[in-house]
Amino acid sequence: MSGVEHDFGAFVAARATSLLRVAYLACGDETEAEDLLQTALERTYRKWDRVDHDNPEPYVRRVIVNAAISRARRRAVLSIVPMHSPPERPARAGDPDLTHVLMDALRALPPRQRAVVVLRYWEDLSETQTAEVLGCSIGTVKSQASKAMAKLRSALGRDTVEGVIRNAHA
């Protein structure tokens, strides 16, 4: 095993669970999260010689978030294309579990706002770090976070959102 493969393998072994969580929160679907992570790791491996080996996680997070946003846009375009018959949709589960309620509310957010919420509040990144991962300004992070939190508070109620965010790491 070469040094590159060893370094990359060690990184994946150490951080895969955390990165899978980011992918899941970015897209809201377990299977899609696994695909997003696989895509991100593949792209990272191909560019491993250009990635900062002391701290490769921000690069992988950015790939995950960008891929999630790209997929959401692609799905939005496909939903506009008329179909001969409507697709079958699974019935909504009646599970009152707060995690499911929150995930539904997160899925309702636009991809960029969802990415900001995931990075800022679940991954506990600073506004600066979030802006770096998303490739945007700090002001954009602040405005997207503000809009996202307003939508979540409106959908879920202020106390619910604040409680979920406080308990996200528990």
Task: Note the main attributes of this structure.
170 residues; mainly alpha; 0% strand; globular
Explain this structure to me?
This protein is an all-alpha fold. About 75% of the residues lie in helices and about 0% in strands. It has eight helices and no strands. The protein has helices at about 5-25, 30-45, 55-80, 100-110, 110-120, 125-135, 140-155, 160-165. It is globular and about 50 Å long. The termini are far apart. Residues about 90-95 have low confidence and may be disordered.
Structural class: mainly alpha
The Cα radius of gyration reads 17 Å
How large is the share of residues in beta strands? under 5%
Report the biggest beta sheet as strand number plus sense, adding barrel if it closes.
Answer: none
Distance between the termini: 38 Å
Number of extended strands: 0
